Every structure is written in structure tokens, then in C-alpha cells.
Amino acid sequence: MKMKDLKNTAQEPQRPLKGLLISKSDLAFALIICLATSLGFFAIPKDQKSSPSGGSISGTVRFSGAAPKLPRADAAAFGMCGKTHSYDRLIVGKGEGVQYTLIYIANPPAGKANFSAPTIKQEGCGYSPHMAIATRGSSVNFVNNDPGLHNVHGYYTSGSDRTTLFNFAQVTQGQSSSQQLRKAGMVGIECDVHFWMSSWIWVTDNPYVAVTNADGSYSIPDLPPGTYNLVMWHEGWKMSGGDGGRPEFPGAVVEQRQVTVTEGGATTTDFELK
Q: Of 8, 169, 181, 200, which sits most exposed with the smallest number of CB within 10 A?
């Protein structure tokens, strides 16, 4: 080849390659998409199976037959408390429904309790409410709405075993005191001044708990499908004697049922006291 031919060949502009599948603009667009995806601007949906919807357990705790006439405490010596006072051990309402009965799951699924911190008032020489639920680690607030002395004595209670959790006096009307609940389980509350006064707090880590309403009804929602051991707990009301003015009761009435919850299903389980 002559030198002139070589010179002309070197100066010829390059022609585009035939069969090129991606243009420069396509490549730039692809790079932008990759960068945006890596930074989280775009999310590529994944084929995920949706979680099963929860079911529920609800029902009523009723007293079988006519509610018994229970003895009352002699309160005349305490002035502000009237002549007699109920022990508040059995409260039967509309349709023979039993209020303040605890319902909980003994083998609960994973879940985190988030109950509001309870306030227990001392009013008319009684505790209100008679039973409350508290999240473990939260605090319970006690308020004295009576014009005289009360004492608040809290026990961790398991069967007949009791360990003092707190014990303090509230001397004046309007006085308020808080106590932290660090351990899950049942806390029994008594007043060391007025022997008939009692209350209960169920301290829990999981949300699958209920206390019956005035008509005896309860509901535990948002349960994952599964088979559970559902427990009814009532403090008991049959007096068996006394010790220094404070009566003795034989213990709680406890019943357990196996209950199956289906996806999105509503299971009804009733209990009976007699």
C-alpha cells in the first residue's frame, strides 16, 4: 500500500458498529436506575406471603343459680366506713355475669403487653377497681380519696405463698403514691387498717389477658391461629374462718380450657361459677 493510501485510511471517521444492542442513552438510564435502587429510591417488590389474620376469644363468666348472700364486715369502729362493708369477693351483675374475673392464656404466643398504667383508688373504704391488669415494669398509682388513714400492703402471690412487695401508709385525703411492678404474676393488695379491703393486679408481659366487665363478658382479640390453654381465675368467696378480724378464704377458683383459634375466626368460650 502506498503512503498516500495509508494517510487517507487513518483520517477516515470510524463507522458505528453494526448489531450494537445498547445505545449510550440506554446505558446511562440503566446506571441511574441501579444507583437509585441501591440508595432506596426504588423498591423492587418481592413475592411475599401475607401473614395470617388474627382471631379472637370471647365469652362470659356467669354464676350458676342465685348469687349467695355473703357476710359483711363490721365497720362501725372505723367511723368513716359506715356500719358494715362488703368484702367485694363476688360481684354478680346483669344476667348473673361475674365481674372482676381474670381470663388469660397460659401458653401465650409472642406478643408485647402495652396496658395503661393502672390507678387504684381508695374510696368508701374499698379499692376501685377490684382487679386491674398492668404491664410488667410499669407502675401502679394508689390514691386515697377517703378523709382518713389507709395502709397499702402489696404481696406477690402464688397459691398460698406471699412475699411483700410494698407496704406504706396514706394518711391524708388526696395522697398519691406509685409503686413499680417488676415481676410478672399476681399481686394481692390489702389494707392493714381495714381488714375487709382487698384488690388484685395481674402483671404480665403479653397482651392476651382480660378482666370481665360488669356483665361478666370478656374478649381477647388479635390472637394468631393456634391452640391455647385458656385460664379463668376468680379469687373465691367462700369464707372459712378468721384470724385477728381478717377472714380466711380457701383460695382461688381456677378452670382451664383448651381453645383453638382459626385465622380471622371468633371463638366463644363461657365459664361458670357455682
A: 8
pLDDT in tens, 261-271: 999 999 999 99
89 shares a domain with 133: no
SS3 11: helix
Q: How far apart are CA 128 and CA 70, in angstroms?
A: 19
Q: Mind listing the pLDDT tens digit for each residue in 91-137?
A: 999 999 999 999 999 999 999 999 999 999 999 999 999 999 999 99
Asked if residues 200 and 155 have their Cβ atoms less than 8 Å apart, the reply is: no
Instruction: Say if CB 237 and CB 202 are below 8 A apart.
Output: no
Q: 1 lies in a domain?
A: no
CA–CA separation, 251 and 238 (whole Å):
9
Q: How many domains does one find in the chain?
A: 2
Tell how far CA 156 is from the center of its chain. Answer: 18
Task: State how far the Cα of 13 lies from the Cα of 211, in Å rounded to an integer.
Answer: 88
Residues 144 and 129 grouped into a single domain: yes
On whether the CB atoms of residues 67 and 92 are closer than 8 A, the answer is yes
Structural domain contains residue 45: no
Q: What residues make up the domain containing 260?
A: 52-106+212-274
What is the H or E stretch that residue 228 is in?
strand 226-234
Do residue 98 and residue 154 come from a single domain? no
The C-alpha cell of 232 is what? 379463668
Q: Is residue 228 part of a domain?
A: yes
> How far apart, in whole angstroms, are the C-alpha atoms of residue 249 and residue 156?
17
